[in-house]
Design brief:
Dna Ligase, domain 1, D-amino Acid Aminotransferase, Chain A, domain 1, single chain, Rossmann fold, alpha+beta, 26% strand
Length: 445
């Protein structure tokens, strides 16, 4: 059993980890930048250490500061949460070198899935379906044009070290290639300090469906069913749900087995997610593997009644998992509540929350770190919290979500609540007729 865990993150995920640790009898250390001194995760942890200025590079991404905080508080483990250094093999290695357990996979496992080209090659060897594409990184615009011509437009250029839509460009015809190539390369370099890019065939209007997996240190791997993350804007997820309304028992079995193959190919330990694109004919293709806890992990927790953070910690302690696969027992939907103005192209809206009323009642869960008077800083992700509803059917979950959104009052900043309210009433969404391009034709009223 760990005695004390330092949480190398902020906001709602830090608070989420603190709650599970408290239930397990484990002490916690919060770290915070000067901009986050009033955050709830700082107030609720057993200890708190300021690690720097508001800019992420000087605080949450500063490995030296994080390690110093771990050493002065005698933490014997670090939980990275998601984002920041959660998938940084260097950080994981430094933790291990200093006798501090990194709660997640090994540095080699992170490395093997962090580079998209390497991950794709690994999946091909493991027999997991992948999107057709070129071999290796693109070396020139001419090579990109030649490959696209052979493959057939449209194609998509991606950053090999990427994620979240950064360094990604869809190319519909030859005349667009040079600009797309240059901008993708520049954005990849700026976002990941790695300008490597590669090309795949673009799957038009797919579903984005991911499989939650868990693996222990003894080679046992299981899947914990799927999440549909197709409602997204600019490759950023806004709504997630489980089970997917597009899923069949046969498809769940095939995707679950493929996800376990993907994890087994690198002897994966910890919890993680294998993400797939699924076309209209239910053909699925490996997209990437996230070697960390996901923002939307709570959707899975609610449909299988399972604490994934606790499982992650127990695996890191050397516990065995059962190896049983899971099927959703209920239906859960998550809406990401962000400090953004949906009427102004979702522009970030940092500032002070002057009034707050969070919803409650049967089938409602709110994961958030804010309160009335809290100031949302401009330096980080704009998420205020996650609203999750749980019911026996999808339609009931939608109705509960609409009711809960109607009760959710946040004043002082703009939020995505009006967008979610309209979405819950949209007939196409309610019928399950959507894909990753759904919001391209969605008009906010």
């Amino acid at each position: 059993m760990f005695k004390k865990i330092l949480i190398a993150n902020r906001g709602e995920i830090a608070l989420r980890v603190i709650r599970t640790c408290r239930e397990m009898g484990i002490k916690t250390v919060a770290v915070y930048s000067t901009a986050d001194r009033d955050s709830l995760h700082v107030k609720f942890a057993d200890e708190a250490v300021c690690i720097g200025k508001p800019q992420s590079a000087e605080s949450y991404l500063n490995i030296a500061h994080l390690m110093a905080a771990a050493e002065i508080t005698n933490a014997d483990a670090v939980h990275p949460g998601y984002g920041f250094l959660a998938e940084n093999p260097k950080f994981a290695q430094i933790c291990n070198d200093h006798g501090i357990k990194f709660i997640g996979p090994t540095p080699d496992m992170i490395n093997s899935m962090g580079d998209k080209i390497t991950a794709k090659e690994t999946m091909i060897k493991a027999g997991v379906p992948v999107v057709p594409g070129g071999e290796g990184l693109l070396q020139s615009v001419d090579e990109a044009k030649s490959l696209a011509k052979n493959m057939g437009y449209p194609v998509i250029i991606k950053a090999t070290a990427g994620g979240g839509g950064k360094g990604m460009r869809i190319v519909w015809e030859d005349t667009e290639m040079e600009k797309a190539y240059d901008t993708a390369k520049l954005e990849a370099a700026a976002s990941f300090k790695n300008d490597g890019i590669y090309m795949e065939k673009y799957v038009e209007e797919p579903r984005h469906i991911e499989i939650q997996i868990a693996g222990d240190q003894y080679g046992t791997i299981c899947h914990l069913s799927e999440r549909d993350c197709s409602i997204q804007r600019r490759h950023q997820k806004l709504v997630e749900e489980s089970p997917s309304p597009f899923m069949t028992d046969e498809l769940r079995y095939k995707m679950g087995e493929a996800a376990k193959k993907a994890a087994g190919a690198i002897n994966y330990e910890s919890v993680g997610t294998v993400e797939f694109l699924v076309d209209k004919d239910r053909n699925f293709y490996f997209m990437e593997m996230n070697t960390r806890i996901q923002v939307e992990h709570c959707v899975t927790e609610e449909v299988i009644n399972f604490d994934l953070i606790k499982e992650q910690i127990k695996i890191a302690m050397g516990d065995r998992i059962s190896g049983a696969d899971y099927i959703p027992m209920n239906h859960a939907i998550e809406c990401r509540i962000n400090a953004e103005d949906p009427y102004n192209d979702f522009r970030p809206s940092p500032g002070r929350i002057t009034s707050l009323n969070q919803p409650g009642g049967h089938g409602v869960r709110v994961d958030s770190h804010v309160y009335a008077g809290y100031v949302i800083p401009p330096y980080y992700d704009s998420m205020i919290g996650k609203l999750i509803t749980i019911a026996q059917t999808r339609q009931e979950a939608i109705q509960t979500m609409y009711r809960a959104l109607s009760e959710y009052v946040i004043e002082g900043v703009k939020t995505t609540i009006p967008f979610h309210l309209q979405l819950m009433q949209d007939e196409r969404f309610r019928s399950g007729d959507f894909n990753t391009k759904f919001l391209d034709r969605f008009e906010l009223k």
